[in-house]
Design brief:
Elements (H helix, E strand, L loop, with lengths): L3 H8 L19 E3 L9 H5 L5 E4 L2 E5 L8 H5 L5 E3 L14 E3 L18 E7 L3 H9 L12 E3 L8 E5 L4 H12 L6 E5 L1 H5 L19 E5 L6 H12 L3
The structure holds iron/sulfur cluster (SF4) (2 copies).
Length: about 240
């Protein structure tokens, strides 16, 4: 390569210019609840490995905070009441917003947190979700480039504004997580990335008491999925910053 500058120009820009496109065809989206009326057959409840769905009469409630995105409920629903969502803006600010229903009650809009709007320094603690960790790493690569939104990952909790948690937080990691949080200066917030971190996922209720991030921590954003797509993780980070 004689001229490195020309080589760089020819390579072009690697960073994706369109933010939050729909999922690529090879990825499976999370289920959503549509307006199509439910027949009450119960097939979705019987097939769900994490008891994420409750059906009462014609009312369906889906807890995305427990959903692994396996797609079984969508495949077996005869009425289209449960359907796949292809959007990547799937993060929310409150746990209640992860509950989807075809009979939604009144909703209190979640408040923005414009605390750390311009930049966010993040310390990740993985409590055992390698797939989620890989997607967090992908969010920092040249394509997704989370740094362009003012987000930087740091090595020490002393330098962090946000604690990003992946994995189901079993007994063995709970103390380490709480110590990491205690080492952070105020203002500080927590982001739960992935269904394991939100509820424990498949491990919930097991002997390891792996039921997700302790609810007494101030969780500013929840990113459902097992694992979530890098755009969904970036969406959660922007929500926590009060920028979406
Ligand atoms: S996609 Fe989610 S809600 Fe549906 S069966 Fe799988 S885990 Fe349960
Ligand atoms: S949502 Fe679909 S699969 Fe579930 S009970 Fe209703 S009709 Fe059956």
């Amino acid at each position: 390569m004689r001229n490195p500058f020309l080589a760089l120009v020819r390579a072009g820009t690697q960073t994706l210019t369109q933010s939050f496109p729909d999922l690529p065809t090879e990825a499976t989206g999370l289920p959503t609840v549509t307006a199509a009326s439910c027949r009450g057959c119960g097939a979705c409840v019987a097939g769900c490995p994490t008891q994420a769905i409750v059906v009462a009469g014609d009312e369906v409630t889906l807890d995305r905070g427990r959903c692994l995105g396996c797609g079984q409920c969508v495949r077996c629903c005869p009425t289209g009441t449960l359907a796949e969502e292809r959007a990547t803006r799937t993060a929310v600010r409150t746990r209640a917003e992860l509950l989807l229903s075809n009979h939604p009650g009144p909703r209190t809009p979640s408040a923005a947190l414009p605390l750390l709007r311009r930049s966010l320094h993040v310390r990740e603690v993985s409590t055992g979700d390698s797939a989620g960790d890989l997607e967090v790493i992908a969010s920092t690569n040249a394509q997704f480039d989370v740094a362009r939104f003012g987000v930087h990952f740091v090595a020490s909790p002393r330098h962090a504004d946000a604690l990003l948690v992946t994995g189901p937080v079993g007994r063995g990691m709970r103390e380490a997580l709480l110590r990491c949080y205690a080492a952070m200066a105020e203002p500080r917030l927590v982001i739960a990335v992935g269904t394991d971190a939100i509820s424990g996922g498949l491990f919930r209720g097991g002997y390891a008491e792996a039921n997700g991030v302790p609810t007494d921590l101030p969780i500013a954003a929840y990113v459902p999925g097992a694992p979530p797509h890098p755009w969904s993780i970036i969406h959660g980070l922007l929500l926590a910053m009060g920028r979406d």
